[in-house]
């Protein structure tokens, strides 16, 4: 499933520095220390002034990353007099529907699932993108990204952050000591896994627990294997129900993912047996790599936000990541990714100003300068992206030879993508066979 986004992230490595640099007030979104609108610092925000008011934003982003988020728009608040009241929740998907259906929605939400976004749009809950914002969006984002927030020909949202999911985290030092080379094919990756298992160690560590969203990391495995065992066209048919969810081609992908996830010789390094996957939080899933208890952990670039403070990330560091290999490299370089989309449930002047700002190049560079974040906004100064895996992610996003596809479960109807599929993955890990699992999900697809 997509950007953290629906998965809470943390930025532990820089949280302490930020606390000293910005003070308590910055984290609260309080604008009482507003700057003079005519000051040089406020010049970039001149087009947003004259729209004072409060704007509520609701999303799944929590903890230290929420602090980064609020810091990224702090100067905007100070210069415009617009106060942004942000709330992050681990029950975002369910509670957003409760709020919206109950007539008490936030002004703005960051939705990582196009399928959930479409549900609100079709129900008439979202405000369409006004013409001035559409002009900004068309100039700043690829058309492929904008289509994910377009429903019935009407544009509703702009991308915010992005993530690349097709990565495997590992210890460069441990690989070097064993003489392992970073695998470039699925076969090479399995060969290394077998060698590690032959030494009575568990090569893989996995965490699938995520509160009400438990199971989403397993869906990312399935999506990556769908892209690696089938064509991009078949992947698209799968996400739109152009083929049944229990199609034999889906069975092939799920079983290939299961050759790692359900293999007792391979998992769960540092935690226990196969069933421990469902009780291990996704935030902690890859940490045994740092203790030498695990060798590989498949997770998105944003996993850097969960590493302990002081962890060195890079090819010569404590931990790094390599591209999740293709099964057949001759068929191309499939890349799975995701991100959040900024949508509005209300359309007052302050809300519209915030929407325009969040879609701007000024905002993209403000957030990127704080670290641990990437975006499809083409106004981003890539030199501001400093974290090693995020640099790698930007290379992937900009690689014209890569075949990019958005997180499949996020594209599906919410009842499936963030409902029966998450539940089905947990039942599957706990012993349910592939056919019965996929039959269950197929039977839940809205008619």
Automatic annotation (TrEMBL):
| Pfam families assigned | SBP_bac_1 (PF01547)
Keywords (A to Z) from UniProt: Signal, Transport
Keyword Signal assigned to the entry: answer is yes
First and last residue of the signal peptide: 1-26
Write down the SUPFAM superfamilies for this protein, in alphabetical order: Periplasmic binding protein-like II (SSF53850)
Indicate yes or no for the key word Oxidoreductase. Answer: no
InterPro entries membership:
Bact_solute-bd_prot1, SBP
Family of the protein in this entry: Belongs to the bacterial solute-binding protein 1 family.
**How is this protein named in the record?**
ABC transporter substrate-binding protein
């Amino acid at each position: 499933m997509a950007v953290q986004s629906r998965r809470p992230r943390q930025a532990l490595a820089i949280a302490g520095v930020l606390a000293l640099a910005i003070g308590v007030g910055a984290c609260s979104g309080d604008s009482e220390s507003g700057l003079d609108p005519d000051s040089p610092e406020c010049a970039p925000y001149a087009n947003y002034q004259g729209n004072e008011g409060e704007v509520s934003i609701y999303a799944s982003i929590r903890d230290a990353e929420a602090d980064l988020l609020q810091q990224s728009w702090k100067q905007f608040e100070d210069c415009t007099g617009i106060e942004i009241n942000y709330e992050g929740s681990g029950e975002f998907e369910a509670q957003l529907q409760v709020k919206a259906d109950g007539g008490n929605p936030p002004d703005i939400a960051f939705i990582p699932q196009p399928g959930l976004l479409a549900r609100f749009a079709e129900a008439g809950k979202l405000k369409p993108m006004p013409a001035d914002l559409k002009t900004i969006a068309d100039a700043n984002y690829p058309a492929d990204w904008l289509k994910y927030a377009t429903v019935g020909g009407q544009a509703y949202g702009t991308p915010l952050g992005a993530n690349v999911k097709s990565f495997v985290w590992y210890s460069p030092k441990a690989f070097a000591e064993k003489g392992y080379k970073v695998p470039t094919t699925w076969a090479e990756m399995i060969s290394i896994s077998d060698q590690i298992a032959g030494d009575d160690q568990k090569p893989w560590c996995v965490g699938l627990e995520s509160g009400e969203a438990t199971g989403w990391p397993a869906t990312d495995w399935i999506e990556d294997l769908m892209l690696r065992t089938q064509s991009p066209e078949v992947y698209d048919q799968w996400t739109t129900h152009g083929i049944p969810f229990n199609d034999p081609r889906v069975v092939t992908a799920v079983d290939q993912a299961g050759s790692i996830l359900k293999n007792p010789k391979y998992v769960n390094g540092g935690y226990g047996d196969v069933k421990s996957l469902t009780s291990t939080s996704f935030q902690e899933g890859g940490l045994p790599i740092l203790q030498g208890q695990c060798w590989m952990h498949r997770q998105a670039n944003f996993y850097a936000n969960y590493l302990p403070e002081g962890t060195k990330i890079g090819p010569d560091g404590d931990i790094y990541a390599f591209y999740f290999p293709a099964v057949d490299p001759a068929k191309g370089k499939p890349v799975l990714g995701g991100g959040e989309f900024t949508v509005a449930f209300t359309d007052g002047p302050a809300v519209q100003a915030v929407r325009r700002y969040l879609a701007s190049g000024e905002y993209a560079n403000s957030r990127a300068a704080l670290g641990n974040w990437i975006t499809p906004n083409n106004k981003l100064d890539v030199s501001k992206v400093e974290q090693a895996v995020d640099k790698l992610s930007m290379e992937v996003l900009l690689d014209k030879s890569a075949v990019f596809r958005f997180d499949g479960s996020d594209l599906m109807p919410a009842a499936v993508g963030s409902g029966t599929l998450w539940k089905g993955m947990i039942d599957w890990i706990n012993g349910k066979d592939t056919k019965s699992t996929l039959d269950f999900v197929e039977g839940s697809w809205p008619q």
